Each structure stands twice: as C-alpha cells, then as structure tokens.
Amino acid sequence: MAERIAILTGGKAGEPVAAKTAVALIRYRRDEVVAVVDPGFVGRDLAALMPVLNAPPVVASVEEATTLGATAVYLGVATAGGKLPPELKPAVLDAAARGLRIVSGMHDRLGADADVAAAASRSQAELVDLRAEALAERTVATGGPIGGAFRVLTIGNDCSVGKMVTAWELTRGLIEAGIDAAFAATGQTGMMLSGGGVPIDAVVGDFLNGAAEALVRRHAHHQVTVVEGQASLLHPSYSAVTWGLLAGSQPHGLILCCEPGRPHLHGRPSLAVPDPVRLAAVVRASAGEQSGCELLGVAINGRRGRDDPDRLRAERERLERELGVPACDVVAEGPGALVEVVRAAADARAADRPAADAP
Amino acid sequence: MAERIAILTGGKAGEPVAAKTAVALIRYRRDEVVAVVDPGFVGRDLAALMPVLNAPPVVASVEEATTLGATAVYLGVATAGGKLPPELKPAVLDAAARGLRIVSGMHDRLGADADVAAAASRSQAELVDLRAEALAERTVATGGPIGGAFRVLTIGNDCSVGKMVTAWELTRGLIEAGIDAAFAATGQTGMMLSGGGVPIDAVVGDFLNGAAEALVRRHAHHQVTVVEGQASLLHPSYSAVTWGLLAGSQPHGLILCCEPGRPHLHGRPSLAVPDPVRLAAVVRASAGEQSGCELLGVAINGRRGRDDPDRLRAERERLERELGVPACDVVAEGPGALVEVVRAAADARAADRPAADAP
C-alpha cells in the first residue's frame, strides 16, 4: 500500500499527543510521507516538536504538498469524540477538490460534510473513513476456544500513553527475533500503519466483544498476535471499549503501558491518573479472573520523565518490584526486554499445550 | 402513549425467554395489548405458557388483530445479534401494508428490508426502530459528579435473568412507598414500557459510557433512579455493554439478579453460569473499586426453582449469607425487601451528603 502521503495536523504540529497519528505515520511510514501540511509551522524542524527522527518538511498547503508528489492526505490528529476539527476543513476540502485520496480516522464521516462530499464527487477523490466500516461489524463473540497464536494485549492506565506504539514496537522486535508475530490494529492509527484491523471504538456495543474475538481469530495462524489496546479500564469516558477488547480478544498476556509524571487523566483535568499497580490489581480481579491472562511486562513512556531521570528510574524500579515483571521504554531502549518475556511466555504455553490444540 | 397493541411472537409464544419482550408488554402494558399474533398458538391460553396473568387472546394474523382494534404491532421477541427473524417478516409486511405503527427493538432496521420499506411508504405506516437513534448518541462521559438522585443499577450473572423486571418492579414499589423514583430504560423492552431511555447496546463503543452518564443525568431530579441493567460482566458476548453501563451510570447501589437452576449461560451451552458470589466479587474489585458502589440486595428469579422449592430456598439463604444482603423474588413476592434496602441506603446517603450537594 505504498503511497505518497501528506499529513494534515491543523495547527497541532507542536502537540505530539494531539498529533499522535502524525507522529506514528512519521515514525513508521516515513518512506511514504512527503510533507506535513500546517501553515503555522512552515520552516520549523518537526523533530524538535515531536518525538520523531528524520522529520519531513512542513508546507503551508495541500497544493504545495502535491508539488512534492503527494497523492493522499491523512488526517494526523486525534480528537475527543472523533469530531472532524473545523480547522482541518479547508485543507480537506482542497484535497477533495484536487482528487487526492483522503484517509480519516474520525467518527465523523468525511462525506457527511456537504462541501467535501460535493468536491470529492466532482474530482472522484476517494474518501476513506476507517471508522465507518465498524458499523457493519455484527459478530457476536462466542467466548469459545480460539487456539493458534499466543495473544498479547497492551493495556494502559490512561489514553495516549503508548499502547499502539508499544504493540507496534513489540511486534517488530518479535519479528526481528525470528518469531512469526503479527500486529492486530484496533484503532485508526494502527490501521493506517498496518493496512488492516478493526476500529473497535466505533463498533456498536453488542458487537464489541465480537469484533475483538473476530480480529484475533483472523490472526490465529501466527505464532504471536500483539493486539493494540485501547483507552483504559479506569478512564471514565471510554472504558467500555477497553473491557470489550479485554474480554473478546482473550489475551494470554498483558503489557501495561504508563507515562510517569502525567499530571491528570487525558482530557480530564480534575481526575488523577490511576497508579499502574492499582490498574493491574483491578484487571487481575476482573478480566484476569475470567480468562487467566497474566501481566508480562510494563512499557514505560519516558516522554515526561526524561527531565528528571532519577525520578523516572525510581518509578520504573518501583513498578518492577511491585508488579514483579520487567519494565522498559520501547522508544528509548527498543522492545528487547518485552520481546524476551513474551517469547518465554509463548514458549511456556506451547510446551504446556497438548499437540491436538496446536494451530 | 396509550395505543392498541398486537404483539408478534413468530412461533415463540411458548418460549418465555425468547419472547421476553412479549411477556413484559403483557405484564406491564396489559390494558393496551389487544392480541398476540402467532398462528401456531391460536386458541392456547398464554398464561399456561408464559409467566403472565390475564393473558390476551392469540390470533392467527395481523388482519385478525386489527378486527380487535390493533393500531400498532410490537415485535415481541429478542434475538441473538438483534436480527429480524425471518419468521416475523410476513406479519411485519402485512402490518406495513395496512399502515399500522410498527415498533421494533432489533439491531436490524425495519426499513432495511426493501419489501417492508416499500409497503410502509405506500401506506404511510410509521416504522419505529428503537435501537436506531442510538447511533446518533455522541456524548463522551466526563466521569464528573452527577448529584441528585440516588442511583441503583440492576446487574446479573447472565442475560435474561430479570434485570429489567427487577428494575421495573423496584421502581413501582418505591413509588408505592411514596418515594419519587424513576425507571431509566437501557434496552428495547424497557423503552417500550417506559416510553423513554436509551438502547445502550446499540450505542457505538466510544459513546457507551457517555450514553449511560447522560441517561442518569436526565433523571437526576428524582429521589431515586433505578437503571435497567444489561447482560453480564461475565457473559462473553455482551460484557462491554455491561461495563460501560456500570462505569457511566455511576451507581450508588447494585441489585444482583440471578436465576438459580439455569443449566448454562444464555445462548452458550458450553459455558457455566457464574456463581453470583463470584460475580459480586468481580464487580466489587472492578467497578466497585472505581465508584464505591455497594451491593444492596439480590433478586432471585424463581422460574426454574419452583419445581424444587427446598433447593431454591437453600440457594437463596446461601446467597443472603455469603453476600450479606437480603434476597427476594420480585415476581412471586413483590419487591418489598428491595424497596426497604434501597430506601435505607438512599436515606443514609442523603443524611451523609452536605446540603450544598443536594439536588
């Protein structure tokens, strides 16, 4: 699916959490990204604003991006409630008028905007709404045995703490270690990276567990499936999605993602971020009680902690001690420590399992 | 919303669990029900087939129901995945051709069937899809304080164990005891009874917690809100809905519903029904850990137990002992015992609460 991508960030190029989709595309599909379109950041070095190396140029318009070869625009920001941000509309409209492919992960449909729909209709621009297909998802989970791949799910004590990045880096690390591992995307950014998956937070409630179960069944022929986690079981807004994914994907192992130093829950200034140890206890007593899934490791997002490395190290050691599993910062150090625990757990399960149950 | 209702049961009039919507309409909107349409059951006494008193007549066709005055047909069965059962189509089509109001709680839209849509268009029949509006639900839960009413949620260790009936009977009992209580419907049957509510299992994942929070905010001006529970936290298929409702409605108290003697999970012959004591522990360690909600009572569905009353009594005593709360069978005995514990808990909270927090 190689293409020539311009990423729209609509004024958020300097906010790596809001522009997390842009960050992921630049990190993991860099060869295909020709530019970021964000007029307020023209001439700035994105690598100084976002946790990326080798940043693409910033241009002022979709027109300029096309002179660099862009054939597609990707909406590079995540918004509360998945609304199409008004500040992105001019660029989206311009791209539609020029017949570019437009890829969006918003709950709002691109074509729901009459101007965009009309422009795309005239130019034959392809409008790709990654979350739209989720409404057609009508699988009811069986809860029955899945077999095949060892399943790992990333969980987090908040939104935007690194569940997608950890799952992606872990998958890459497992593959580099010679293991047949697959990344199972459950969100729009993961889908933009992998070209597959299901936007689980856009699935209707009754079919949420089923969408997760169907997703892992489709990956059962691999040795290891790494499922991208969503939100947090203790986030007030989106925890139904987290629970459905935990129940439906029937993970064998969990990687807990957290960002030490975060001042409050994402988008909820009055709510504290739960201690990862508390989250682990809640998950163990609920989803763990059901499926027997085990915590295998902790993924530390060191973004905020790098200013105070002693404190970050102390928190990491506390989590390793209290949770009894290794921790690592997959961006700073690579996923090696997590690759090892996942490989060991997958091997242990394969050894335990009767041959008849083999994939 | 008084109307003249014919209930369609499509061959399921003898199956009270499948026809649970019919049972609820006959129990709680009996004055408006003129007939049940189910050709295979003409002349049978429904009271011998379903747990209802004063059953309406069974007729063979929608045409006959109209001779009894029917102006509306209600789909009286619940199906896995909310699919429109093919055996109901002839009657639905007939009703559409006759211009009757048709009320459905299926995930499948009535108008998605081209024949039904065409017939309704010709006759101007009103097609009411209770679950359809849920897709427009786009509230993101805040997790912030709600205030006002004391909130009670019914939970269950399986689907179809009596969460709706318990919530309805409890609300009625509270009102009879002079308390300003309101029933907050979360499913199609509850909506058919109350004329309001939200079909929470049809809401998109990201907005599930939000739909529950918005529902209880709309009822905050009452003294007590009784929220109809959905599915079970330990049911493999639909537990995302249960979790979203538990988190979003921020209940103060829970009533645990169960049906002793049930051989396996609803629709899942290979899966055992979880012990209610186990469910209570999981809920306490997860949703309870978050919100501090407390188990107030147990609602025993005695349907299967009445053949062996000693065993039913022993199970009831065990649950009371192990859970430390009173149990009652709201259908056999009325909701008195639950009314008392809810009233006491609501009073205790009102006494604790600073005046500034009063509604």
TrEMBL record, chains A, B:
<protein>
    <recommendedName>
        <fullName>DUF1611 domain-containing protein</fullName>
    </recommendedName>
</protein>
<dbReference type="InterPro" id="IPR011669">
    <property type="entry name" value="DgcN-like"/>
</dbReference>
<feature type="domain" description="D-glutamate N-acetyltransferase-like C-terminal">
    <location>
        <begin position="150"/>
        <end position="339"/>
    </location>
</feature>
<feature type="domain" description="D-glutamate N-acetyltransferase-like N-terminal">
    <location>
        <begin position="42"/>
        <end position="132"/>
    </location>
</feature>
<dbReference type="InterPro" id="IPR035402">
    <property type="entry name" value="DgcN-like_N"/>
</dbReference>
<dbReference type="Pfam" id="PF07755">
    <property type="entry name" value="DUF1611"/>
</dbReference>
<dbReference type="InterPro" id="IPR035086">
    <property type="entry name" value="DgcN-like_C"/>
</dbReference>
<dbReference type="InterPro" id="IPR027417">
    <property type="entry name" value="P-loop_NTPase"/>
</dbReference>
<dbReference type="Pfam" id="PF17396">
    <property type="entry name" value="DUF1611_N"/>
</dbReference>
